[in-house]
Structure formats: structure tokens, C-alpha cells
Amino acid sequence: xxxxxxxxxxxxxxxxxxxxxxxxxxxxxxxxxxxxxxxxxxxxxxxxxxxxxxxxxxxxxxxxxxxxxxxxxxxxxxxx
Length: 80
Prior knowledge:
The structure is a single chain. The longest helix has 30 residues, at 39-68. Helix 1 runs antiparallel to helix 2 (39-68). The chain has helices spanning 2-28, 39-68. By secondary structure, the chain is mostly helical. The N and C termini lie far apart (35 Å). The relative contact order is 0.14.
């Protein structure tokens, strides 16, 4: 059950990043989506959504690897 919940939690930022890529692609091809008043705002919103989703997934993987001791010593937590 715990792994299933973790998978569901990780799917949210994956879809967020995917939607950000879609918004950037649509802005590149001048396809304006309904909630955005201009192409440039849509593109910036796509960058923000992609960055947030990518950072969450990267932080999750980094935290998990740090916990399991699979990272370089320079990235490990300082004791004391």
C-alpha cells in the first residue's frame, strides 16, 4: 500500500512537467490555450510547471539515494 501511495504522489509532478512541456510546445507553434492571454505568458507558465515537476522528481531521487548511501561523500549530510 505504501509503494502505491508513493507512486501516485510521484505521478502528480510527472504530469505537471509533461503539461509544462505541452504548454511550451503549443506556445512555440503559436497555439494559444484558453486560460492564458498571450503566447509569452503561456510559455513562461510552461517553463515554471516543467521546472517544478522536474525539481520535485530530482529532489525525491536525491533524498532516496542519500538515505540509502548511494551518493558521493560531498553530497552527504554533515554530522554535527
